[in-house]
């Protein structure tokens, strides 16, 4: 009698455990759901995806080329008649295609410099955090030094001396964009290393590699994702500043910064040449910031 | 405190040396010398010139000579502007940048702190929303977009102010650039001040003060303002440096004859010594500013012990 009761209870517990296991949610699924509940972030993601798709495929689908002059339509206001939906610039080049091509460059620089600086930042921060001691001190001192330097001026010097090739612009931006990530990753590595659950995992005999891959890396990934989304707008902004100052990619290639600079010169008579690229850059930055905020809210472990 | 200050001062030296060395080497690695002009110079004259500027010495000796002249406050001669030394060019440009940058920073501290206080004390009021809006706009829109938009509104649609240029510190020419810089700085200071004052107002000692029945004015100005200002002090250093940096953009947008314009012109004319000299100068200023802010922070915050 007692036996059967115990058995029934055990079965009930087992059934419950099973039910819980079926209903189990990974932290990533939680995060995803939280992100998709954030309407501003989702809307921003949609808009940014549309802008990216337009920049990648738009120029192939439109009738004008980004470097050809339309002799019949110089400084033309936006119109639906002859395919110049954003109008033309003072050399008669279609502004819509130029905005999209410029967006390609801006987004591409943003993507590449982000990947590069995130990689450097993770490696630098994780190394410093894991090794600790003197190595940590020296590596973090170097980061402090990089922070103290007025980066834009040195970026200007680098672009002046090295040249304005696409990959050199990426390099210049990368050199001054990895420190935030390094700091954050180091801090996170340090705190994870001394957490109780790591100690507990050690105590029950989990191997070092499982500790790293099951416990350390997932906890690092959240903050890496957050700071990657925060790095993107900063990098795009730096590229546009360099281009705006005439130190980015060169004609007939273009980027949003170059287009805004062109537009500033003629805004008195033909303001749309300034407004369209400025709007595209602003929308992109705004969306990227909102996505970053959304990611932070979704992934920040403190917020649970 | 003093040992901390001493260590902190010592720490600036490697930073400065690193920046100067890297920039100097980058400059040195660039092809083309200062005397590669179209006019042929005879070998003897060239040798004399090189001897005068120590260009015939090995690299490390040239570098030491450069450091020595830097210590004496000499930034060298300009490549492009004949008969102008970098020092002369800086002496003309620095006051312009200082007036615009320093003026707007001072202005934005007062406006930012004021708006931050009002926003924190009246959460969800109109001022609060205004501060949040300005904060969002200032941090999301780059200055080279806000600037032209300001010009478009205040110089073209409503022609109240000049669109740019400079006329011997005449106020009308300074309004728009200062407005732009102030707007951007206020967005940071206002947000920081609002956040930190809200936090302080929720802390235990303020509750005690309220329980004692102190008037709101005393609570805010005697008790909560000083701790709430700490985060503002800590952003002042980065803000001052970013004011120097954003001078590059502002001065291009409004065509002001300041340091930023000088460095951009130098960069597009490939005037290497000018750009190097300016980078060194601004780095020194930035590092010293950081140092001052850190020391001020250590002095102001009794919780920090070194």
TrEMBL record, chain A:
Compartments (UniProt record): Cell inner membrane; Cell membrane
Taxonomic lineage from the root: Bacteria, Pseudomonadati, Pseudomonadota, Betaproteobacteria, Neisseriales
Similarity comment: family membership: Belongs to the binding-protein-dependent transport system permease family. OppBC subfamily.
Transmembrane domains' residue ranges: 40-62, 105-130, 142-160, 166-185, 220-249, 269-292
Domain of life assignment: Bacteria
Record bears the keyword Protein transport: yes
Matching CDD domains: TM_PBP2 (cd06261)
InterPro entries in the cross-refs: BP-dependent_transpt_permease, MetI-like, MetI-like_sf, OppC_N
Claim: Membrane is one of the keywords in the record: yes
Lipid bilayer topology: Multi-pass membrane protein
Residues of the ABC transmembrane type-1 domain: 103-292
Family annotation (PANTHER family): OLIGOPEPTIDE TRANSPORT SYSTEM PERMEASE PROTEIN APPC, OLIGOPEPTIDE TRANSPORT SYSTEM PERMEASE PROTEIN OPPC
Protein name: Oligopeptide transport system permease protein OppC
UniProt-listed Pfam families: BPD_transp_1, OppC_N
Annotated organism of origin: Vogesella oryzagri
Alphabetized UniProt keyword annotations: Cell inner membrane, Cell membrane, Membrane, Peptide transport, Protein transport, Transmembrane, Transmembrane helix, Transport
Automatic annotation (TrEMBL), chain B:
Domain of life the protein comes from: Bacteria
Keywords: Cell membrane, Membrane, Transmembrane, Transmembrane helix, Transport
One Pfam family here: BPD_transp_1_N
Coiled coil: none
Family (UniProt): Belongs to the binding-protein-dependent transport system permease family.
Transmembrane segments: 9-27, 98-121, 133-158, 170-193, 232-254, 274-300
Subcellular location: Cell membrane
Name of this chain's protein: Oligopeptide ABC transporter permease OppB
Organism: Vogesella oryzagri
Membrane topology: Multi-pass membrane protein
Annotated InterPro entries: BPD_transp_1_N (IPR045621), MetI-like (IPR000515), MetI-like_sf (IPR035906)
PROSITE patterns: ABC_TM1
PANTHER family assigned: DIPEPTIDE TRANSPORT SYSTEM PERMEASE PROTEIN DPPB-RELATED (PTHR43163)
Kinase is among the record's keywords: no
Domain ABC transmembrane type-1, first and last residues per copy: 94-293
């Amino acid at each position: 009698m007692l036996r059967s009761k115990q058995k029934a209870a055990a079965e009930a517990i087992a059934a419950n455990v099973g039910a819980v296991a079926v209903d189990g949610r990974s932290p990533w699924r939680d995060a995803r759901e939280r992100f998709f509940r954030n309407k501003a972030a989702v809307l921003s993601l949609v808009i940014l995806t549309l802008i990216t798709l337009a920049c990648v495929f738009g120029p192939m689908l439109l009738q004008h080329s980004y470097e050809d002059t339309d002799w019949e339509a110089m400084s033309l206001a936006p119109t639906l008649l002859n395919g110049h939906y954003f109008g033309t610039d003072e050399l008669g080049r279609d502004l819509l295609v130029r905005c999209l091509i410029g967006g390609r460059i801006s987004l591409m620089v943003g993507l590449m410099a982000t990947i590069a600086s995130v990689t450097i930042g993770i490696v630098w921060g994780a190394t410093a955090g894991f090794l600790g001691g003197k190595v940590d001190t020296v590596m973090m001192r170097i980061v402090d030094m990089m922070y103290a330097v007025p980066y834009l001026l040195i970026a200007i010097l680098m672009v002046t001396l090295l040249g304005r090739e696409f990959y050199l612009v990426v390099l210049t931006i990368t050199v001054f964009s990895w420190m935030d990530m390094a700091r954050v990753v180091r801090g996170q590595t340090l705190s994870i290393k001394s957490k109780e659950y790591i100690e507990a995992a050690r105590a029950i005999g989990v191997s070092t590699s499982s500790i790293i891959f099951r416990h350390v890396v997932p906890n690092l990934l959240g903050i890496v994702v957050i700071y990657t989304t925060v790095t993107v707008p900063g990098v795009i902004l730096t590229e546009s500043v360099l281009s705006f100052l005439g130190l980015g990619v060169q004609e007939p290639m273009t980027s949003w910064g170059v287009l805004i600079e062109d537009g500033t010169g003629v805004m008195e008579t033909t303001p749309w040449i300034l407004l369209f690229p400025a709007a595209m850059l602003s929308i992109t930055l705004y969306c990227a910031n909102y996505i970053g905020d959304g990611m932070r809210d979704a992934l920040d472990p403190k917020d649970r | 405190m003093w040992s901390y200050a001493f260590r902190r001062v010592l720490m600036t030296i490697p930073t400065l040396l690193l920046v100067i060395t890297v920039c100097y080497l980058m400059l040195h690695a660039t092809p083309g010398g200062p005397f590669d002009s179209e006019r042929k110079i005879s070998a003897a004259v060239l040798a004399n010139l090189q001897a005068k500027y120590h260009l015939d010495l090995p690299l490390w000796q040239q570098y030491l000579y450069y450091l020595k002249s830097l210590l004496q406050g000499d930034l060298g001669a300009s490549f492009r502007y004949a008969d102008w030394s970098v020092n002369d060019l800086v002496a003309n440009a620095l006051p312009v940048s200082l007036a615009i940058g320093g003026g707007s920073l001072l202005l934005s501290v007062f406006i930012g702190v004021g708006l931050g206080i009002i926003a924190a004390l009246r959460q969800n009021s109109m001022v609060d929303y205004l501060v949040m809006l300005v904060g969002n706009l200032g941090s999301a829109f780059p200055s080279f977009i806000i600037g032209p938009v300001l010009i478009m509104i205040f110089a073209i649609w409503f022609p109240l102010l000049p669109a740019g240029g400079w006329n011997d510190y005449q106020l009308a020419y300074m309004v728009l650039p200062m407005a732009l810089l102030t707007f951007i700085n206020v967005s940071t200071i206002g947000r920081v001040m609002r956040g930190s004052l809200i936090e302080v107002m929720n802390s235990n000692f303020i509750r005690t003060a309220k329980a004692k029945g102190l008037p709101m004015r005393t609570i805010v100005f005697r008790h909560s303002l000083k701790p709430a200002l700490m985060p503002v002090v800590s952003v002042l250093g980065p803000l001052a440096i970013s004011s120097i940096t954003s001078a590059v953009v502002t001065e291009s947008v409004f065509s002001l004859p300041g340091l930023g314009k000088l460095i951009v012109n130098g960069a597009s004319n490939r005037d290497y010594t000018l750009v190097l000299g300016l980078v060194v100068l601004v780095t020194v200023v930035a590092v010293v500013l950081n140092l001052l802010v850190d020391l001020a922070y250590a002095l102001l915050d009794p919780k920090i012990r070194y």
